[in-house]
Specification:
Elements: E1 5-16, E2 19-31, E3 36-40, H1 47-54, E4 62-67, E5 70-71, H2 77-87, E6 88-92, H3 103-111, H4 118-131, H5 148-160, E7 166-170, H6 178-193, E8 197-201, H7 205-208, E9 213-218, E10 221-227, H8 236-249
Parallel strand pairs: 3-8, 3-9, 6-7, 7-8
Antiparallel strand pairs: 1-2, 1-4, 4-5, 9-10
Helix pairs in contact: 3-4, 3-5, 5-6
Length: 251
């Protein structure tokens, strides 16, 4: 079986004066195309470090990372940037929109780095904005004129404008209220139903229930995982499965 993302014996250490901290410890992870993977664990367990290593935004100390079978761990910074631009999308807890650019320009600047066809890129941006529930009048606004939920949805559209093979998300609902959280999670689910591979780090039970595979990380090691299958709304059994799994993990 081929995997869209594969980590083998992944290690990440940080040195602080004379002390070395081992954050990821010989971690192994395989993700198939179309997976919606959620990684959970207590604060300090290494979740974000793992996400950044998997996406090529940070380098592992040891081990191998492959995207589409392509070993990226020892690529130059320029080649890593090209791989991320072509194959990866990123959604963070903070939206990191450029306040001096309009909503549409924030989205297009990422898309046009990959596609030189501006007409097609604009058309796709408008299509995704509509799916994200962003009204036509939002495109000309600036980030400071948006609500928190609107800004996060703009950031989500920006992250998928290059049609990435893998969408990485680091606590994407952490700064949102309940209704906006559900709205953003619904977009993730719709993307996944369309075949998008998603890898998300979260503390949110609502996000965890959207996964088809849930991994639990503790002290830099994957302690266990649960396979949930495709998400369907109002599935009480799924809710209990996730709750029981996380309770067993000590979450």
């Amino acid at each position: 079986m081929s995997y869209v993302l594969e980590a083998t014996d992944l290690c990440k250490s940080f040195s602080n004066e004379s002390v070395q901290q081992h954050v990821l410890k010989n971690l192994n992870l395989k993700i198939e195309k179309g997976d919606f993977v959620v990684i959970m664990g207590n604060s300090g367990s290494g979740k974000s470090t793992l996400l950044y290593a998997l996406s090529g935004m940070d380098r592992p100390s040891l081990g191998s990372i492959k995207i589409d079978g392509e070993e990226i761990s020892k690529y130059s910074n320029d080649k890593l940037a090209l791989i991320r631009r072509k194959k990866c999308g990123f959604v963070f807890q903070q939206n990191y929109l450029n306040d001096t650019m309009s909503v549409m320009d924030n989205i297009l600047v990422s898309g046009l780095l990959v596609s030189k066809n501006k007409k097609e890129t604009v058309s796709y941006a408008l299509e995704m904005m509509k799916k994200a529930g962003l009204n036509e009048n939002v495109r000309g606004k600036y980030p400071t004129q948006l609500s928190g939920g609107e800004a996060q949805r703009v950031a989500l559209v920006r992250s998928i404008i290059n049609k990435p093979e893998i969408l990485f998300a680091d606590e994407p609902t952490g700064a949102l209220n309940s209704s906006n959280t559900i709205n953003v999670l619904d977009i993730f689910t719709e993307l996944n139903n369309g075949g998008q591979t998603i890898v998300m780090v979260t503390h949110d039970m609502r996000a965890a229930r959207r996964a088809n595979k849930l991994f639990y990380l503790s002290d830099g090691v994957i302690m266990d995982q649960i396979v949930l299958g495709k998400y369907t709304p109002h599935d009480e059994r799924r809710h209990e499965q996730v709750r029981e799994f996380l309770t067993k993990m000590g979450w």
